[in-house]
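Structural prep section.
Before we set up the soaks we want a predicted structure of the protein with adenosine-5-diphosphoribose in place, mainly to decide which crystallisation condition to try first. Input record follows.
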Amino acid sequence: MPLRPDLIEILRDEKAPIVILTGAGISKESGLHTFRDADGIWAKYDISEVATPEAFIANPDLVHHFYNDRRAGLHDPNVQPNAAHVALARLEAEWPGDVLLVTQNIDDLHGRAGSKNLIHMHGELLKIRCNHCDLLTEWPGDLAKETPCPACGKAGGLRPHVVWFGEMPLEMERIYAALGDCGLFISIGTSGNVYPAAGFVQVAHEEAGAETVELNLEPSSGATLFDHSTYGPATELVPAFVATLLEDGSGPRD
Ligand code: APR
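Run finished without errors. Recording the tokens verbatim:
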């Protein structure tokens, strides 16, 4: 059931804070693979071999190769923010209250679309950090275990600035504070398989009494936890939903 126009009007009048969670599905129509769909990244790679701290110790070459490939993919001129990314940037600019966008994605498409109040809870593909010193820096190109750190000069410590399985997602305190205070929580393009992100809907519902909305290609693992849901491609659903929130659309979709 979509969010009713009278509820939207109340949220707008109250200048209700909005928290949005996005996942790989929002970048699918920009040409980036999701993880758990049939053609997804985890159908080709084993998580335990490329996305854990243990994997990086056991086989740093393979881990670097995996992230170098994905980093290069972001520089493909065909990979651009799509209508869903753009609509969320517009929502942030035009909604009368605060809008926090929390993404699980490590691509840079939300930033390129213009979102500013943005948390990359699983890190960023175009950044690296050093295990030997406190370097955290932009890194557009390839990385190898022999690459010396530009700050401390040591090799072997540079790693992608991404959160691997078994590691703590970033900026959780800020995220939970916003969830506990929001009037509307929107989850977009995520399968709801990975915690803590998959639990945000319950925090927003139980702690803030927020309206909760799922916009996804298909019902996620946590679909029944949402008050409202609409299913279809993000490039159609998200601009239409943003238009209804900002009162310039043709009404909510079925
Ligand atoms: N529009 C909307 N949703 C889509 C689209 C689309 N065009 N295409 C696919 N989806 C949906 C799928 O139906 C699926 O429910 O996006 C979801 C993608 O789910 P996952 O591949 O599991 O991606 P995500 O939920 O972001 O994964 C979470 O797991 O391994 C990791 O760290 C990685 O951040 C990632 C985390």
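Observations: Strands lie at 18-22, 99-103, 118-120, 123-130, 136-138, 158-162, 184-188, 211-216, 228-231.
Flagged for discussion at group meeting.
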